Amino acid sequence: MPVTVITRTSCSSSRRAVAWLQDNDIPHIKRTSSESPLSFDEVLKLLIRCEHGFLDILSVRGRAYASLKDSLANLQLNDLIAKIVEDPSLLRYPIIMDGEKVLVGFNRSEIRKFTPSDKRKADLRQSLFSAEAYA
């Protein structure tokens, strides 16, 4: 299953994530939040997969978040998801996911979890052979 990357056009972390996937030959589908925003169900699935829920996905440094900050505590789950669908700038980017794994934001060590296991094994073997050559 290819990895889906949801990006924001002006986001340097999104560009780095896409470049990393390309450099590592990982099949992926790129979506931009402006052309293909997340649906209500997609946001809900994203929340289910995130360890800390909204804390993991909300862009707390953005203007959209600042305008909502005071009313967040009073919003019901469905209302907050609807706000995210209405205004995708509330989210952190990139959002990288496959059938079961998710990563919000770009982290060079965490993005490796999207590398297929056979490629990880081959890379490990190569590293071991290289280490033996220097031993």
TrEMBL record:
Record's keyword annotation contains Cytoplasm: no
Instruction: Give start-end of the signal peptide.
Output: none
Alphabetized UniProt keyword annotations = Disulfide bond, Redox-active center
Pfam families named in the record: ArsC
The record ties this protein, via InterPro entries, to:
Arsenate_reductase-like (IPR006660), Thioredoxin-like_sf (IPR036249), Tscrpt_reg_Spx/MgsR (IPR006504)
Asked if the record carries the keyword Disulfide bond, the reply is yes
At the top level, the lineage of the source is Bacteria
Task: State the family named in the UniProt similarity comment for this chain.
Answer: Belongs to the ArsC family.
Which PANTHER family does this UniProt record tie to the protein? ARSENATE REDUCTASE (PTHR30041), GLOBAL TRANSCRIPTIONAL REGULATOR SPX (PTHR30041:SF7)
Q: What is this protein called?
A: Spx/MgsR family RNA polymerase-binding regulatory protein
Per the UniProt record, the source organism is Lacticaseibacillus mingshuiensis
